[in-house]
Write a structure and sequence with these properties.
This protein is mostly helical. The protein is 55% helix and 0% strand.
């Protein structure tokens, strides 16, 4: 299960995944696999996201929805620019 996820997600423990996303690792991994099968994704206004893997995009989105974090906070957590968020 964890081999499909990247280094940012692999560092999480079960309680952190539940806290930040309200999903277990199993459910999260299933969602990542589902999104991988839907490639290429159509983003808003034809954007092409290449700087983040799908697993990070999903985690970022779920954390934003669950925690209502500011873009700067999410950018710091993922080590990306604020405009990427």
């Amino acid at each position: 299960m964890l081999k499909a996820l990247n280094a940012v997600i692999a560092g999480f423990v079960c309680w952190q995944m539940l806290l930040y996303t309200s999903f277990s690792f199993d459910i999260f991994d299933m969602l990542v696999n589902l999104l991988d099968r839907m490639q290429p994704l159509n983003y808003y206004a034809g954007w092409l996201v290449t700087s983040l893997p799908v697993a990070d995009q999903l985690l970022l989105t779920l954390m934003k929805l669950r925690l209502n974090c500011r873009d700067l906070d999410i950018a710091e957590r993922f080590a990306i620019s604020r405009t990427t968020v």
